[in-house]
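User: Sequence recovery, please. Input:
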């Protein structure tokens, strides 16, 4: 029997419908988020595998949030039964004009909604991308966010306008679904995995004010959730006690994960040559060409005991086990993780682990005027880090002086200025920083900054949906670029090059670009397919061998971490 939750264990907004509660935190052995998350996931699944735990973590440039148990979750899949990416079956095709009309009919997706509180726990609907977007906007607008105005921000200087999660939606929108919607007639392939996942997280952890430990936040929970919440608190208490023992804090290293390039160098060279043909013909000014590395994990829950014993004891079933080492290696500012349960909730069917250095959008709501501002920081231009300080500075200066990289960067800046121009107040689109150099663990990047004030009628979710996929990972013009990418790469990207982040119900939020990102998708066999991608923008001035090497530079350290080298 679950004991009712004591109010001191939960933090609620000061004008919540519930009585305000005192703050209470758990130290969890003082583990950072990337090290805590695998232990937290394993612990919660062990305690109750039937609860719809949908753990998600966002680093948010140092303002971490860990979502635990969504009030409502949306998963979007390809819906082939309703004619996805094909002309709608109820539209007769007699001529080229009919085909053109049919191609304009919206594709339908299978949208699975899972509710924590309702009597009906799961519903499935076929709906268009636009209708799902409208549903999310209506859902967000149904929440009065003014009672959490402590998290809305007054813009006064560069360091003052960083939002943080306080109540809204967290998840990802994949590249495939956004590219398909940008060019439906191209019939861009969608991977057999979730195209998008979003959850309304009213139950989540944030770092405590004391800078040590984590605080559980809950918002406007109804009485039906009290038993579940009481159980959650008891689970966190138990984990906290376990991790106070230094022996239990020690990590068991996962098995080496081998990811092999799907393309040989000759394959890349051929695709590069075809890319150059399109550029020379004037189809595009820039095309982002990427390639994949793939491998497999064993699913313990599907394999026999004999199978498990025949393998290394370090073999793991989940991608999250690699998160601590990957984040320690990269310290990526916009890193994140999301795990999706299988239908029976007994195991994970999909995982997304991002070590992304790239911001897509930051949405800021100004407190006094309620105006919404947006900031984006596209990356275009890369050099590896040097083996010593002298070489490192030389490579950085080489990037600073590169006319070719500046040309690539400004193309994407112009593309994003055009994207934002559809939603921004006239004259508000600015470029305060152009060609800045930012250094990460394995590479130097050229980064520019674009800002704008949104029109009052432009809902931030509409801006996000309408601007995907990001220009820095497609090319320009964007529509033609995604069509060429689909042809040359000949494989769905899945979530890679999509976006992961959060949108508070007041319209503030932050979203990354899903680069340096791994995906793990369960197969019908007792295995999980893992993929990692890398690429770069190709222009007529690009050198084939340098572009190929850039791909290796971008993922080389990740591959070494997975191999435990």
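Assistant: Recovered sequence (565 residues):
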């Amino acid at each position: 029997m679950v004991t009712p939750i004591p109010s001191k264990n939960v933090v609620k907004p000061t004008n919540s419908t519930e009585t305000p509660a005192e703050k209470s935190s758990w130290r969890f052995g003082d583990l950072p988020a990337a090290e805590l998350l695998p232990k937290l996931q394993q612990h919660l699944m062990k305690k109750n595998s039937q609860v719809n735990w949908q753990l998600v973590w966002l680093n948010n440039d140092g303002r971490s949030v860990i979502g635990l148990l969504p009030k409502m979750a949306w998963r979007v899949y390809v819906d082939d039964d309703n004619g996805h990416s094909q002309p709608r079956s109820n539209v007769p095709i007699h001529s080229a004009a009919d085909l053109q009309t049919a191609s304009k009919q919206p594709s339908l997706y299978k949208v699975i909604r899972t509710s924590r509180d309702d009597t009906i726990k799961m519903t499935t609907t076929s709906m268009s991308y636009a209708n799902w977007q409208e549903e999310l906007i209506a859902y967000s607008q149904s929440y009065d966010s003014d009672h959490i105005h402590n998290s809305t921000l007054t813009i006064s200087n560069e360091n003052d306008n960083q939002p943080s999660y306080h109540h809204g939606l967290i998840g990802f929108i994949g590249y495939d679904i956004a590219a398909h919607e940008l060019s439906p007639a191209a019939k861009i392939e969608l991977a057999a995995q979730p195209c998008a996942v979003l959850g309304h997280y009213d139950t989540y952890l944030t770092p405590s004010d004391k800078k040590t430990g984590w605080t559980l936040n809950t918002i406007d929970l109804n009485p039906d959730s009290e038993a579940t919440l009481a159980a959650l608190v008891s689970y966190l208490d138990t984990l906290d006690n376990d991790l106070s023992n230094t022996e239990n804090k020690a990590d068991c290293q996962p098995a080496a994960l081998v990811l092999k390039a799907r393309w040989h160098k000759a394959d890349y060279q051929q695709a590069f040559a075809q890319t150059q043909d399109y550029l020379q013909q004037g189809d595009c000014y820039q095309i982002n060409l990427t390639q994949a590395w793939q491998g497999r994990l064993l699913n313990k829950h599907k394999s026999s005991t004999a199978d498990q014993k025949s393998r290394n004891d370090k073999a793991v079933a989940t991608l999250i086990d690699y998160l601590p080492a990957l984040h320690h290696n990269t310290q990526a500012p916009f890193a994140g993780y999301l795990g999706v349960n299988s239908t029976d909730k007994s195991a994970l069917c999909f995982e997304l682990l991002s070590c992304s250095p790239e911001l897509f959008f930051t949405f800021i709501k100004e407190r006094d005027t309620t105006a919404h501002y947006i900031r984006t920081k596209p990356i275009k231009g890369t050099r590896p880090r040097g083996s010593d300080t002298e070489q490192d500075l030389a490579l950085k200066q080489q990037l600073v002086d590169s006319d070719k990289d500046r040309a690539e960067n400004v193309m994407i800046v112009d593309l994003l200025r055009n994207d934002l121009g559809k939603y921004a107040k006239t004259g508000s689109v600015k470029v305060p920083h152009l060609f800045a150099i930012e250094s990460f663990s394995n590479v130097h990047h050229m980064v520019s900054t674009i800002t704008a004030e949104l029109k009052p009628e432009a809902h931030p979710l509409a801006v996000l949906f309408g601007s995907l996929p990001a220009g820095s990972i497609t090319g320009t013009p964007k529509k033609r670029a995604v069509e060429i990418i689909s042809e040359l790469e000949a494989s769905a990207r899945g979530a890679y090059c999509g976006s992961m982040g959060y949108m508070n119900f007041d319209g503030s939020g932050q979203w990354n670009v899903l680069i340096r990102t791994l995906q793990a998708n369960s197969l019908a066999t007792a295995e999980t397919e893992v993929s990692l991608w890398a690429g770069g923008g190709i222009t007529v001035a690009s050198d084939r061998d340098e572009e190929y090497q850039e791909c290796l530079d971008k993922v080389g350290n990740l591959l070494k971490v997975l191999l435990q080298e």
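The two ends are 48 Å apart (CA to CA).
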